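R.M. (postdoc): so does anyone remember the format we settled on? I'll just put the structure tokens first.
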């Protein structure tokens, strides 16, 4: 039991909360896969398929790890989707590395992993609960103790919360250990690649000169913006030629869809707002006249902020309540009032305020016997013995516990759903005086606890808050539903949808390049079914009505076109190419004008119509030079500065923002001293970053297929 006392990152609260967290995880149905798809696959890497069931298990495993690591019982839809993507990306990366490592004979031995654990500095180890309380760093001895205790654990002789916690911590460690192996294999493979790119003295000297040799130069140029678009012609053949020259840039590796959609968000009507306001007036009156059982009353109002009968810091209260708290006397009610930031009507009663210690050290002995009567008798005996002078730690050891003090603060329990026993427990810890002893009778056990230290005094409050969202009524939703349904029925083709949406009062939205790897449409929650439909429909088809969001959105989707895997067609990249071709045509015209003008000096170029001039200083080859007169970064200015002759005018150069000529007038070196080893190490680091790009090449080679959208 000693290790358990040390690794509970949230103090004694984990004993109470962890059972709730695990129950929420086990009972939740967020990850269930529909029965008809049980034999289907969600993806493929190097020809190896991943089944929906195996993917689901990986998601569940990682979900539990995240919940335990963050001490949360539920994840938002956004967090859940991010987690699913992380699981998939990790799976793909590991498969890619394993495939290459197998060819090379790279492996990770148990001895390597043990060495990493013994060293204790790996970043993954710092994310475990097995950390020294004094230093905050990974403690291998704490891990060893835990594993020994886990192997000897007798579930029948310990509270269920403890048993569940031990089991959860063991699963967490198993996940970390597995991840260590995968991470180490990737590190070895990447190191192998990076070591194949070696820096040398010539390379190091060149890189040093590129950043230390500086040039000051004069510039004259004519911006492309000075040439009207109408003065140059871009033909289809020009675009086709540009497309053929850059075709590889337009390759895409997954199919995408271009869609149009209508998103209808249902809002409360004035009648709905008036009805909620009337309810809140009644609740406010009742709140002002009551003086007990606030938890039940607040719960009955449908408030989104539950009442917990504990003193709390302002951190636990809504921002709008905190802003008004000081202007309200104890016993008074404030409200109702509307808070625009979260679209709620609110009222609250300030029940009490006090200055209390927020950090409290206490120790405890958990007592459990064969039945409630024996448990109480044993707890009374322990309490009496300690009260009479017995050493707390020695008594605790007698019952297999350390009796060591742990710290708790409001951050450990504020914002957590607490039941009666939890409130009773925390209330005792937070209100006992220093040195005081208590014998608490809880549902499954008795706890004898003693406060040993208190510090960090803060202002705390008891506040009963009624916060009601301004929600639409069923009648309002039905009206919007019926109207939208009628529109969809009358506009069952993409053409009709586009033509009639605005007249019907709906806003038509576009979404280009929608990918099946996304988790919905338009950033709206609960649109996975609509996404799936979009990838099964044909161009020109429109969907039915999808109810989505937080039951406050309705969606209609129309498929405009399908962009297949491969090279994007010219029609979809014309705008991008037109801009580039237009710039090239303008550059040709400007250069022709310069030639016709017969300019041979910087002053003559600067005297041309629409010309600008500038002086750019301290230009190096290592970075693009910023030219204020053109408002752009110009790599060719940096390139010419490294080779241009002093006081010699360059030929016209086609830059990013215009055509310009350059004339260096000074070259200097900064005071940095050349160190070959330093430069070689810098170059080696650059090569390592280059080597890290190997994953994209392996990904393309592996022909990865992601069909998770069909099931998840």
């Amino acid at each position: 039991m000693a290790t358990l006392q040390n690794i509970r990152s949230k103090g004694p609260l984990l004993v109470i909360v962890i059972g709730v967290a695990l129950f929420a995880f086990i009972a939740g149905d967020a990850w269930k896969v529909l029965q008809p798809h049980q034999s289907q696959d969600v993806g493929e890497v190097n020809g190896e398929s991943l089944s929906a069931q195996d993917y689901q298990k990986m998601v569940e495993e990682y979900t539990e790890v995240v919940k335990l690591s963050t001490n949360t019982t539920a994840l938002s839809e956004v967090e859940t989707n991010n987690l699913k993507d992380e699981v998939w990306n990790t799976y793909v990366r590991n498969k890619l590395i394993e495939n290459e490592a197998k060819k090379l004979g790279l492996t990770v031995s148990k001895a390597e992993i043990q060495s990493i654990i013994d060293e204790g500095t790996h970043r993954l180890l710092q994310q475990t609960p097995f950390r020294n309380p004094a230093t905050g760093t990974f403690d291998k001895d704490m891990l060893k103790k835990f594993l020994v205790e886990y192997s000897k654990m007798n579930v029948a002789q310990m509270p269920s919360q403890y048993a569940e916690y031990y089991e959860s911590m063991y699963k967490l460690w198993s996940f970390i250990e597995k991840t260590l192996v995968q991470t180490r294999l990737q590190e070895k493979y990447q190191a192998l690649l990076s070591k194949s790119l070696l820096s040398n003295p010539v390379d190091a000297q060149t890189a040093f000169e590129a950043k230390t040799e500086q040039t000051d130069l004069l510039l004259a140029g004519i911006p492309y913006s000075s040439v009207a678009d109408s003065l140059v012609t871009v033909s289809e053949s020009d675009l086709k030629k540009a497309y053929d020259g850059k075709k590889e840039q337009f390759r895409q590796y997954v199919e995408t869809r271009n869609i149009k959609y209508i998103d209808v968000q249902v809002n409360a009507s004035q009648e709905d707002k008036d009805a909620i306001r009337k309810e809140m007036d009644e609740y406010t009156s009742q709140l002002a006249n009551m003086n007990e059982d606030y938890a039940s009353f607040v719960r009955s109002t449908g408030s989104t902020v539950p009442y917990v009968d504990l003193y709390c810091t302002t951190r636990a209260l809504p921002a709008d309540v905190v802003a008004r708290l000081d202007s309200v006397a104890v016993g008074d009610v404030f409200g109702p009032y509307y808070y625009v930031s979260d679209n709620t009507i609110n009222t609250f009663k300030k029940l009490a305020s006090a200055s209390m210690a927020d950090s409290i050290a206490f120790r405890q002995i958990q007592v459990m016997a064969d039945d409630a009567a024996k448990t109480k008798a044993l707890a009374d005996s322990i309490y009496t013995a300690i009260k009479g002078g017995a050493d707390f730690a020695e008594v605790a050891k007698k019952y297999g516990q350390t009796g060591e003090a742990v710290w708790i603060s409001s951050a450990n329990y504020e914002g957590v759903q607490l039941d009666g026993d939890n409130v009773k427990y925390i209330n005792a810890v937070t209100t006992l005086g220093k040195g005081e002893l208590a014998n608490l009778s809880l549902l499954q056990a008795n706890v004898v606890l003693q406060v040993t230290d208190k510090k960090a005094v803060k202002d705390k409050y008891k506040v009963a808050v009624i916060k009601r969202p301004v929600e639409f009524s069923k009648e309002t939703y039905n009206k919007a539903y019926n109207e939208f349904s009628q529109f969809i029925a009358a506009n069952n083709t993409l053409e009709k949808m586009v033509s009639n949406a605005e007249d019907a009062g709906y806003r038509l939205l576009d979404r280009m390049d929608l990918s099946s790897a996304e988790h919905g449409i338009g950033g709206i929650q609960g649109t996975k079914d609509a996404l799936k439909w979009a990838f099964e429909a044909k161009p020109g088809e429109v969907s039915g009505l999808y109810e989505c969001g937080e039951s406050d959105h309705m969606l209609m989707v129309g498929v405009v076109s399908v962009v297949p895997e491969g090279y994007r067609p010219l029609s979809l990249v014309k705008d991008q190419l037109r801009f580039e071709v237009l710039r090239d045509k303008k550059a040709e015209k400007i250069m022709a004008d310069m030639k016709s003008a017969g300019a041979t000096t910087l002053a003559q170029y600067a005297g041309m119509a629409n010309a600008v001039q500038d002086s750019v200083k301290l230009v190096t080859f290592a970075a693009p030079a910023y030219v204020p007169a053109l408002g752009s970064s110009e790599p060719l200015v940096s390139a010419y500065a490294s080779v241009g002759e002093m006081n010699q005018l360059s030929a016209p150069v086609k830059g990013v923002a215009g055509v310009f000529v350059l004339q260096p007038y000074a070259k200097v070196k900064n005071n940095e001293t050349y160190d070959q080893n330093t430069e070689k190490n810098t170059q080696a680091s650059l090569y390592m970053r280059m080597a890290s790009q190997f994953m994209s090449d392996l990904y393309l080679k592996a022909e990865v297929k992601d069909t998770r959208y069909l099931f998840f």
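R.M.: ...and that's the designed sequence above, right after the tokens. Also worth knowing: The radius of gyration is 35 Å. Residues 529 and 546 are 8 Å apart (CA to CA).
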